[in-house]
Write a structure and sequence with these properties.
With 145 residues, this protein is α+β, with helices and mostly antiparallel strands. The protein folds into two domains: 28 residues, no CATH class; 95 residues, Glutaredoxin (3-Layer(aba) Sandwich), CATH 3.40.30. A four-stranded mixed sheet has the order 2-1-3-4. The site of FE2/S2 (inorganic) cluster (FES) has 12 residues, from helix 1.
């Protein structure tokens, strides 16, 4: 008997991939998320990070907190340069306001996340889950020029 590897949406996964489904259904909805974090993994941000695969590490922390599925789901996506390299390692927070309405942490950009340890990431993810303010997290300021 061959063990089939399944992703969290219940689709069989292509050999050698973490979650790529074997059967693509163009009409299948994407999985709901409450919060989507874009983690910059372009050269200048990645260069300061001690972790080789930051997105993978963060997904594991989210999984440990049981936030990888469901209404409070936090999704991690990698990004290329976000044009804010001096604040490396940049993380941009996007809340799903279409599904949930106003979310106070939508549009925040985090500064210097390369210094976060696991406990700091857990603190962030739990704060996002509960829509707490992020005063304990250094944010990148924005200004209209
Ligand atoms: S390389 Fe990350 S913001 Fe430019």
């Amino acid at each position: 008997m061959i063990d089939k590897k399944m992703n969290i949406m219940g689709s069989e996964v292509v050999d050698g991939y973490e979650c790529k489904p074997k059967q693509l259904d163009p009409n299948r909805p994407i999985m709901h998320y409450k919060t989507l974090l874009y983690v910059c993994e372009d050269k200048r941000c990645k260069g300061v990070s001690k972790v080789k695969d930051k997105a993978k590490e963060l997904r594991q922390i989210i999984k440990n907190l049981n936030l990888e599925t469901g209404e409070q789901r936090i999704k991690i996506s990698r990004s290329l340069c976000q044009g804010a390299c001096r604040y490396k390692q940049v993380v941009q927070i996007n809340e799903n306001t279409k599904a949930n309405g106003y979310e106070p942490n939508n549009g925040i950009w985090l500064n210097a996340t390369h210094i976060y340890d696991t406990a700091k990431w857990e603190e962030l993810f739990l704060a996002l889950k509960e829509n707490k303010d992020l005063n304990n997290f250094e944010q990148i300021k924005m200004k209209v020029f």
